Amino acid sequence: MACKMQRRIALRRKLQILRTLTKSKSVKKSSIIMDAFFYIHKLKLQLEAIKNEYQHLINHLQEVKVEKLGTGYLIVRVTCKKGEEMLVSILEAFEEVNLNVIQARVTCKHFFGMEAIVKADIDATILNEVILKVIQRQTQNCT
Q: Which positions are tagged coiled coil (predicted)?
């Protein structure tokens, strides 16, 4: 008898917690459970919408900045969607235009990011265009 009472009390506590989490006005057990089900469904839809928005933002993230650092040196900053062999393609492009990479930092957790100091006899705008073409080619190959 005491065991049944404890189970009932525990069930009431759990239902009360569900009721407060879902901000349900219902008193009936079945209504509280249905409200919780709809609340979970609504949260799943919100999560899916956030994931879609995140993917949309990542897909449209593409930036290349080339700045002159001094005589013969350039700073190259690249931010774009993560793709297979992105770093290799960019370094091959550097090699094609006879650039020497002095220092480079690369990140590719959520997106591809690279900051490099290069020694070059090339104009910054030309290098910018070369890198943009490489990125566009790589992103087209991945999709």
A: 40-67
Measured CA to CA in angstroms, residue 136 lies from 20, 22, 23, 61 at distances of 50, 46, 48, 12
The residue among 58, 88, 104 that closes a domain is 58
Question: pTM (2 decimals)?
Answer: 0.58
Collapse the DSSP code of 102 into the 3-class scheme (helix H, G, I; strand E, B; otherwise coil) and give the result. strand
For the chain, the average pLDDT equals 87
Give yes or no: residues 34 and 83 share one domain: no
24, 39, 58: which is the final residue of a domain?
58
Q: Do 130 and 86 share a structural domain?
A: yes
- Please compute the mean of the pLDDT values over residues 99-116 and round it to a whole number: 89
User: What type of residue sits at position 117?
Assistant: I
HSE-CB at 127 with a 13 A cutoff on CA atoms is 29
Among candidates 93, 95, 114, 113, which has minimal Cα distance to 103? 114
Would you state the structure tokens that stand for residue 35, as one six-digit string?
């409200």
d(CA 117, CA 66): 10
Look at residues 128, 82, 129 and name the one whose alpha carbon lies nearest to residue 106: 82
In a shared domain, residues 68 and 103: yes
- How many Å separate Cα 118 from the centre of its chain? 28
